[in-house]
Amino acid sequence: MAALYYGLAIGSLTLTQNSDGIASFWPGSGLFVAALLLSRQSLHASILLTVAIGSVMANLQAGSTVQEALVYSAANCIEALIVSRFACKSDGSLGSMDDPRSVVRFFGGALAGGFVSAAIATMFSGNLSVHFFQSWFGTVVLGILIVTPAIVMIANAANRISVRPAKREIFWAGLALTAVTAITLAVFSQNQYPLLFVIPLCVIGATYRLGAPAAAASVVMIALSGTWATAMGDGPINLMAGTTQAKNLFFQFFLLSLLCAAWPLSALLAQKHRLFGELANSKKRLEQAERAANIAHWYYEIGSKNLHWSDELFRIYGMSLDEEPLPNRRAILRYHPDDRDMILQTLITALRQQSEYHFEARIIRPGGEIRYVTSSGEPDFDAHGEVIGIFGMVKDITERVGAIKSLKEARSVAEQQAKIATHLSETDLLTNIANRRKVVGFLQQAIVTAEKTGEPLSIGILDVDHFKSINDRFGHQAGDHVLEAIAATSTSFLRASDCVGRLGGEEFLFVLPGTTSEVAMAIAERVRAGIMNLDWAQAELEQVTACVGIAQYVEGADEMWLMQAADEALYEAKKAGRNRLRLAA
Questions:
Q1: CB-based contact 395:373 (threshold 8 Å)
Q2: Whole-model pTM?
C-alpha cells in the first residue's frame, strides 16, 4: 500500500506540479479512502501507517521539508478517516455507490475531509495563502470523488460475479469505454479547437448505457488523459488565457462538472433498474401466487381501450400465452350458452350502477373441457370520480365444484345406506313388516299424541290358531308361509295411518291411532275374516284362522298396560273356541 500510494503521489507531482507544488488532482487520496472503505476495521491502523510512510517519502522526494512532509501526510490521513466515516451508514456498512443517499453521504464526506485537510496543511505547513488552501482542497476532493468510487465499484463487482458475464455485455462495455478514451485523447491531443463540450456527452452516453461503473471509469480516464495532456502543453485547456493556476482551476471545475453530470444520472438509472427489478420480482411472485391459488386478474383501460390479462387467465381459458387477450364480448362467448345471458345482465347492471359485480359460471375451453369459475370486479375511478377502467378477478373453482359434487354424491349414498340400515333395523326379515322394536315405538308415540290431543287410540294383538301344529305337521317352511300371508292380509285391511308389526313367533300387534274400540273391532273382524277366507288349499294347508284381542287407550295407560289388556282379551278369544275377537273389559 505504501509503495502504491508513493507511486501515485510522485506521478501526480511530477506531471502536474504547478508553482505552488500542488497537483491538479490527487489520486492517492482516492486510493487511500477506498482502502479504508473496503478493508476491515482491524486493518485501518496498518493502512494509515503504510500510507503515511509513502506520503512522507513522496513529499520529501518532491522537495518538501520534513515538517511539510509530516504535516501533509497527517492532513491526508485525517481527511481519509473523515471521508470513510461519512461514507458509511449508521450501522457501519458501506452503502452502494450508485444509491442517491450513499452518493450524498460520500460527496459530503469528501467536501468535509478536503476542507479539514486543506486547513491543516495551510496552517501548519507555513503556506498561509488562499490559493494554497484552494488548490489543496480541490486536488484532494477531486482525487477522492474520481478514484474512490471507481475502485470501490470494481471491487464490489468482482465480489458479486458468480458467473461469467455475457459476451454481449463485455462487448458493449469495451466498446463504450474505448470510445470514451479515444474521444478524450482526440480532444486533449490538440489545442486548436475548444472541444471540451464533447467529453460530457460521451460520459453521459456511457453512463446511460452501462451505469455507475462506466461513469467512474470514464471520469478516471478523462482525468488522467487531461492531466497528462495539460502537463505536456496540449489540450483545449491551454487555449485559455491566464496563469497556470487559473488553467488548473478551470480543469478542476471541468472534472467536477463531469462528476456532477454523471453521478446523479448513474444513481437515478441504478434506482430505475432496482425498481424495475423489484417490479419484475413482484410480478413473478404475483404470478406464482395466482397459479397456486388458481386466481387470475384482468384490467381494461377505457380511454386507450387497452386490455391486460395475467398469465393465469390465459391458462384458465385454455389459451397460449402467445395469444392476444380476448375482448369482453368474445370472452363471454367462451362461457357456457346457458350462462351468457346472466353474465351480460350482471355486467350491464354493474356498469350502469358503477358498482361491483360477482357471478359463477362455466367456461368452455377450446378442447371442450368445462371449467367452473367465479368472476368478480369493480370499476376503477380517477381523482375526480370518473370511471377510467375496470378491474376483474377470475378464480378457477373446478376442483372445489368437483369436491362438492363428490361430497353430495357421498352424502346421498350415505343417506341411502342409512335408510336401508334403519329399515333393516326396524323391519321383520320374514314378513317385511315392522318388527317388535318399531311397532312398540310407534305405539309409544301414539300414546303421547293421544294424551296431547285427546283422540281415541286402540290396539289389537293377533295370534295364529294352532300354529305349533302347523309347524309340526307341515314343517317350518309352511309356518313361515302362513306368517307371511297373515302379515300381507293384515296390512291390506289397515289404513295408512295404522301400523302392524310382528311381536315375535305368531303374534302381531296392530296400532290404530284415532280409533275407538268399536271401529277397532270392525277392522279386526275384516282382518280375521280375510285370513279365514284365504285359499290355504292352494298352499297345501288346511284352513288357518286367528284370534284378536282389542284394547282401547284410557288416560294414564302406557304401552305395557295396553298390550297386557289386549293380550288378556286375546286369551279370552282363544278360550271361547278360537277364530274369534274379544274386547278388553
A1: yes
A2: 0.51
Over residues 405-414, the pLDDT tens digits come to 888 888 989 8
Dihedral through CA 448, CA 451, CA 453, CA 456, nearest 10?
Answer: 100
Q: Are 86 and 148 in contact (CB under 8 A)?
A: no
For the chain, how many residues are written?
585
**Is residue 571's pLDDT more than 90?**
yes
> Residue 505 in 3-state DSSP?
coil
Task: Judge whether residue 135 has pLDDT over 50.
Answer: yes
Residue 548 phi/psi, 5° resolution?
-130, 130
Amino acid letter for position 568: E
The CA distance from 191 to 185, in Å, is 12
What is residue 132's three-state secondary structure? Answer: helix
Please give the Cα distance from 416 to 74 (Å, whole number).
Answer: 98
Helices in 163-211 by DSSP H: which ranges? 167-188, 198-210
pLDDT score recorded for residue 369: 92
Q: Which residues pair with 549 in a beta bridge?
A: 461, 582
Of 349, 338, 373, 378, which Cα lies nearest the Cα of 359?
Answer: 373
Extract the C-alpha cell encoding 568.
288378556
Q: What angle do CA 293, 297, 302 make, to 5 degrees?
A: 170
The Cα 200–Cα 204 span in angstroms is 6
Helix (H, G, I), strand (E, B) or coil at 310: coil
Q: Judge residue 508's burial from the number of C-beta atoms within 10 Å of its C-beta, 0-12 exposed, 13-18 middle, 19 or more buried.
A: buried
CB 379 within 8 A of CB 389: yes
- Report the run of H or E that residue 301 belongs to, with start and end: strand 295-301
Q: What would the pLDDT profile of 53-87 be if each residue is shown by its tens digit?
A: 888 888 788 777 888 888 888 888 898 888 888 87
313 Cβ partners below 8 Å, 6+ apart? 296, 297, 298, 325, 394
Pick the residue with more confidence: 581 or 127?
A: 581
Pull the grid cell for residue 116. Answer: 479539514
The number of angstroms, rounded, from the C-alpha of 83 to the middle of its chain's C-alpha atoms is: 44
- Alpha-helix runs per DSSP H in 317-435: 328-333, 337-353, 398-426
Tell me: the pLDDT tens digits for 505-532?
999 999 999 999 999 999 999 999 999 9
Task: Give phi and psi for 356, each to the nearest 5.
Answer: -75, 160
